[in-house]
Amino acid sequence: MKTKVLIVDDSALIRSVMSEIVNSQADMEVVATAPDPLVARELIKKHNPDVLTLDVEMPKMDGLDFLEKLMRLRPMPVLMVSSLTERGSEITMRALELGAVDFVTKPKISIGSGMREYTELITDKIRAAARARVKRTVASPVATTALPQLRSPLTSSEKLIIIGASTGGTEAIREFLMQMPSDCPGILIAQHMPEGFTTSFARRLDSLCKITVCEAAGNERVLPGHAYIAPGHSHLLLARSGANYMTRIEQTDPVNRHRPSVDVLFRSAASAAGKNAVGVILTGMGKDGAAGMLEMKNAGAQNFAQDEASCVVFGMPREAIAIGAAHEVAPLTALPGLVLGHLAAHGGRALRV
Predict the structure, then answer these.
(1) Which residue among the candidates 89, 288, 310, 342 is catalytic per the annotation?
(2) Of 42, 111, 187, 259, which is least packed with CB atoms within 10 Å of its CB?
């Protein structure tokens, strides 16, 4: 059974290129294309597609307005197609909050290996979207129970939280970070995201959270109450400089086809922090992060994985669980409390390694 795809874009050229990409795959087909959301609305009723690709900036009806109505009235997997602009990235972040599963940048009309790589990327994302758990959008839950208090300020400076995510991860990370107290340990995050989008992602999180969230620049001291997000063009690594933890940025080759890679971050945490690290692997397709999380476990870290029921795509956590890298598996809503609970219970001066 082929995955049925509906393409919504005001550019006839983009609709044509996207259709050619999708129809080149044996397991998917374009059932229709639409130049705007009004036409798309009727085509959804007619064809009942499995996945919708939606341009973020549309005529006649704003793409965000359409998405909001769609996710409220007829939830379905939506893959946003975004321009590589600051406005495009801001709209995309909002679209993910509204329930879009994932996003890709607009294809560059070219030939050769670049287009082949883009074809592989977008078709993988369509496959993941088709399997994703999509729910009606509701207001974000607000924590009603008090989270564990850290034993002392020493806990915050000695311990670290290391997070990896992919598909569905932007919202999972937002939910996790919004529960973090202002004096929580430093947090390093690798989220699969293209260059140009991590800046908007960090800025949006910073406006919502009690902690400070920024895009990692490299050679920064990792501070309590701060989260550092891997920039979309580089790997993020944890390093040591004397008694301090530092960020490091590298533009080496992709790992598991990703840069930033979760495995790269997790392995660096295993080496630099050992038992002072707490690993968290969230929703995402593929297996990036599983091997690195096992290295963290072997180095003494405590690891948590998001459970299947709360994942948008249960790929990365499943792989980590399968190889025994996670100590605990829990719903997303429970993870902040579990992580802080572990830190509160293991807050002694453990930095001397």
Answers:
(1) 288
(2) 111
- Find the helix or strand (DSSP H, E) in which 269 lies: helix 262-272
192 catalytic per annotation: yes
* 3-class secondary structure, 276: helix
Q: Select the highest-mean-pLDDT range: 37-51, 59-73, 112-126.
A: 37-51
Q: What pLDDT is attached to residue 154?
A: 43
Q: Domains of the chain by range and CATH? A: 3-131 (3.40.50.2300), 153-345 (3.40.50.180)
Query: What's the CA gap between 86 and 69, in Å, rounded?
Result: 24
Q: Determine the angle formed by the axes of helices 169-177 and 86-98, rounding to 10 degrees.
A: 80
Crossing angle of helices 262-272 and 290-298, in 10° steps, is 10
Is residue 140 very low, low, confident or very high in pLDDT (cuts 50, 70, 90)?
very low
The model scores a pTM over 0.85: yes
DSSP E strand stretches across 210-347: 212-215, 226-229, 235-241, 244-250, 277-281, 302-306, 328-330
* Known catalytic residue at 342: no
- pLDDT tens for residues 32-53? 999 999 999 999 999 999 999 9
Could you tell me the pLDDT band of residue 141, with boundaries at 50, 70 and 90? very low
Catalytic option among 9, 50, 192, 261:
192
Residue 352 CB partners (closer than 8 Å, separation 6+): none
